[in-house]
Amino acid sequence: MAREATGTIKWQRGKCVARLRGEYLGSWASEQEARDAIKAAQALSDGKEPDVLRIYANAWMDARELAGDIRDIQGERSVLRCHILTAKFADWPMRRVRPVDVDDWITKLSQTEALRTDRRKVDGVWVCKNIPAGRLISKDTLKHARRLMGDIFADALRRGKVALNPVRDSRIPKMARPREEEDEWTFLQPSEIRTLFAKIEKAKRADFYRAAYAVAIYGGLRQGEIWGLRWKDIKDNHINVRFDLALAVKAESSHRPVPMLPPLRAALDAWRRHGGATKAHGLVFPADGGGKHTKTGHHSRGYDANWATQWRAKVGCPKHVRFHDLRHTCGSHLVMGTWGMALSLLEVRDWLGHADIQTTQRYAHLAPGSLQARVREMEDRR
To answer: CA–CA separation, 119 vs 127, rounded Å?
Structure first.
């Protein structure tokens, strides 16, 4: 017999929270999504364990949050809401989902336009709305959604809700990156790097910013790797990169040692002496509240150490220069030999953790032996 309760929807912090007979059904960006969740829950029989993907996935996510297993709860819920619960089989019993359904979902998702969250105040209430970002979703987002879907079905398999995990043998299709995504990158010149650290010395949290930007510029770590870094991963002469907020614990094959250049070692030593090592959770750069993930102590995945709001302008960089371009700064100067010795593209690939040498080829024109570099040298002599 179907449930007779109509459910409730309540706005909390700009999201619609849906409940049915006190059972939490998730938080949603729009009232329609919340009503869809209630409608799916109403179709379940009283007293039965929920086995519809929409209900099971939300309950599974809640359990993980309570257990403290999620580094970026908002990011995980966003992928769940935008990419998993929009699948055609979101309101099917999970046992009915076949591998071909998952393959169709992945194919369709790879052709989906990415969304960005527009958060604004309407009549005194914060309202979040997903709007098109003007590009297709990234391969990393697709891999994240597939991993999350696989984890949900793996949990259901362990509990006897399904006979197989239909996600297990699925594959991510090759995705052609737009040319502008490959070409649009830049890096800081040595004078700009010096200006950045000179400005940082006058800041209130100089030790924190100096260490964070040293890891980004002289270490070349990704944003998620920086904010997931722990003191136990800092060795005498290298950093053992094992975590990324987007991936949690990285696969063993993705672990890599990153050598510590003298400016990086000095910045981390100074930060450790002035309180970095005494912060909670063993993180090198823990969050201190203010809307961040205080349960795990991590900064948000998109946190940029105030690059866009403060430091970029102080350095004099144009608005298109992103925090991620600090990673390109590292790769560029390693290839050019700015910091003492020019590394080969293979060495830079291993340093930055690129999946293939093609990604590292973007720095090839900066190598001292490249045609462009020899022409520049000839012009300088003239």
So the answer is: 6
Range list of β-strands (E), the chain: 8-12, 15-20, 23-28, 113-122, 125-136, 238-241, 243-244, 248-249, 256-259
Mean local confidence (pLDDT), 134-141: 78
The number of beta carbons lying within 10 Å of the beta carbon of residue 51 is 17
| Cα gap 205→116, rounded to integer Å | 31
Strands 243-244 and 248-249: antiparallel
> One-letter amino acid identity for 82?
C
Residue among 209, 309, 227 nearest 267 (CA): 209
Q: Which domains does the chain have, with CATH numbers?
A: 8-178 (1.10.150.130), 185-381 (1.10.443.10)
As given in the structure block, the two tokens for residue 226 are 């920086």
**What is the C-alpha to C-alpha distance for residues 228 and 308, in angstroms, rounded to an integer?**
20
d(CA 39, CA 37): 5
Give the amino acid at 174: K
The residue with tokens 């950045």 is 196
Name 190's Cβ contacts closer than 8 Å, sequence gap at least 6.
Answer: 333, 338
| DSSP conformation class of 234 | B
Provide the mean pLDDT of the chain: 80
pLDDT at 210 over 60: yes
DSSP codes of every residue in 20-80? ETTEEEEEESSHHHHHHHHHHHHTSBTTSPP-BHHHHHHHHHHHHHHHT--S-HHHHHHHI
d(CA 341, CA 338) in angstroms, rounded, equals 7
What token pair was written down for 140? 């990393």
What pLDDT score was predicted for residue 1?
33
Please tell me the distance from the alpha carbon of residue 152 to that of residue 58, in angstroms, as a whole number. Answer: 10
